[in-house]
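Entry 14. Ran structure prediction on the chain below.
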Amino acid sequence: MKIPFLALLFGGIPEQIALVYLAFVIANVPIKWKEIVPIGLCLALVAYVLRLLPITFGVHTIILIGLLFVILIFFYKISISTSILASLISFLALILFETTFLILIKVLFDITLITLENNVPIRIFTTWPQIISLFLTAFIINKWKKVKGRR
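Output, structure tokens:
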């Protein structure tokens, strides 16, 4: 399914930045926004290109998990096991939030999947609850780790 450019700009890119932030927190990589933002942008652009290709839906997610895994290992020298966990947990959180909020929004606002596909502003609006949830999850885990580390 092709991603409209505005949906990429206002939905896909922030979503991937939030996802990378969560992966960094899980993997104990120091939080540096000058690194998180470009990685999130890169992942969003890869997702955009992959979604243009005639491949089965979901394959792009597997490729993005692998790409994040490789980035954590090679650029941040994170162990293989921690990189796998950080990548998988981050994407599982995204899938969980996306599914939950999509169902809620669909029920509360009576929005069909066809409307989501064809109406870019609504499509963008429906991604923001999951984006905010990813950022909040990462923020809370990061704060909890800092408090736990002080004891």
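The mean pLDDT is 95. Will compare against last week's run tomorrow.
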